[in-house]
Predict the 3D structure of the following.
Amino acid sequence: MNLNTVVEVRRPASADEITEWRDGYAWLAGGTWLFSEPQWTTDTLIDLDQLRWPALKASPAGLEIAATCRIAELYQFAAPPEWIAAPLLRECCDSLLASFKIWNAATVGGNICMSLPAGAMISLTVALEAIYTLWPRDAPPRDVAAVDFVTGNHSNVLRPGELLRSIKIPASALAKRFAFRRSSLTQLGRSAALVIGTRTAPQANS
């Protein structure tokens, strides 16, 4: 959809270039929701594409996912064999039931920040005990547990202008056993309910 209220698109090389925030600004990542309906109060888009954050960084501590990581990039991630919960990444990507065009545009952070019921990336990161790093406009970065981020339907703890920078999933959570169930009102419809459970694997006898 054309957003005919938008008069400017800014492309900062760093989020620090956006020092002030006002009504009418909107962060632009994948834009799959932003361009799906009129945004009558938005006149300026701030495109995150030029920030060039690495999509995925795996380390012994766990997996760091940039908020701008595309769903397609997350789906293609090859995890170490000891991360036995890693198949959840693909299960939750599949739960979005989107076309390949959407997968190559939509972002992990966008799905989280939309904060809709049965948001697949929300369920994924809460189940895997993720920590979100948020970047306010006028304060130091802060960390929020995934389980505390969403406060209601389409609402969360983000302050005006605050940016979701990254999602950190600990290796200990990725090493857990898991169960995954999804329900939809139609055979190939949007998720109506998405439930994930995890369990720490029993330790071998010494």
About this structure: The radius of gyration is 18 Å. The mean pLDDT is 91. The longest helix spans residues 87-95. DSSP finds seven helices and twelve strands in the chain.
